[in-house]
Amino acid sequence: MEEIVSKQSAITVKIGLNANNLPLEMHWSADDGGIKDSPAKAVMLSLWNPEDNNTMKIDLWTKDMSVEEMKQFFHQTLLTMADTFEKATGENLIAEDLRDYCYHFAEKMDIMPEK
């Protein structure tokens, strides 16, 4: 039996661009999360297209995002991807491998948290 959509929710990202279409500012909102026009400096959006069996993606960051912030953003995103992959697939061993890589990434990028 097919499930019926009983509700819709919106997540929006507004990008303020300069004359050369470079992102200067970003704000995002999430109806169900109670978030309205929250500032952001970067977004990575991946969507699975079942017709093409392929990922569509958008990667944007503001011109004032520092390299150090980008390193942290990537590190935290990779860690989150490991958690999401494990939750979605139950593949805990490969998720741990990815977390190990994240530790290596943080070490190489010199962003290891202070102990």
Automatic annotation (TrEMBL):
It comes from Fluviicola taffensis (strain DSM 16823 / NCIMB 13979 / RW262). This is Protein involved in gliding motility GldC. InterPro entries: Motility-assoc_prot_GldC.
